[in-house]
């Protein structure tokens, strides 16, 4: 068994002002994606300047935060938020939904693409390889918060989380998701997009791989207490939400290679 590192969730405290690691992880994700987007921009839109890029980052970040929070409220804990709507603003306590953020990014990307002469999937293909940076950083935030831990296990890398009332050795499922959704997904998309691909192909590969990775990790992750298992005694909300992602990913890849010609958006 490995010891849990006991990191204080509050990174900086200045009087009543507290800056949480969870919030800082979002800044890491957005900042890292912004830096890599600037590297790729000349190949995607040579006529776009730094101001245009900053506008795009703003719209995408808006989709992540607003969609992620609203998605969590709607998909995972609507009853609690109806009882106390002020909880919606307490993002430092966690409670963000990837699938809500995913939908938020699609909506904001569609708006931004229409305003700037791009097709939706041209823009999403450009954005997709950047997303795993934020996903990985977010899972590190979950780990520091000691939340979203896994099921009990006797594996040698099991950990006892301070937020677990049972004090049982558990799968560090946050680190599994960091490795798969953050590191592995980034490597796959970065190298895949390093060569010209048909429009929608990079987006499709993102949806497919994320859906598979998340679906698998959910088998060793404890479901949200307020929901439990939703179908067949083993399917979680995360798995149910990943099923359409996997199907959409397969559909986009099929459509891309059947109907489109490669375009020259490369990773750099």
UniProtKB/TrEMBL annotation:
Protein's membrane topology: Multi-pass membrane protein
UniProt main location, coarse: membrane
UniProt keyword terms in alphabetical order: Cell membrane, Membrane, Transferase, Transmembrane, Transmembrane helix
Record GO terms (molecular function): phosphatidylglycerol-prolipoprotein diacylglyceryl transferase activity
Binding locations of a 1,2-diacyl-sn-glycero-3-phospho-(1'-sn-glycerol): 139
Superkingdom: Bacteria
Protein's cellular compartments: Cell membrane
Top-level EC class as recorded in UniProt: transferase
Transmembrane region(s): 20-37, 57-76, 96-113, 120-140, 175-192, 199-217, 229-257
Keyword flag Cell cycle: no
Function in brief: Catalyzes the transfer of the diacylglyceryl group from phosphatidylglycerol to the sulfhydryl group of the N-terminal cysteine of a prolipoprotein, the first step in the formation of mature lipoproteins.
Name of the molecule in the record: Phosphatidylglycerol--prolipoprotein diacylglyceryl transferase
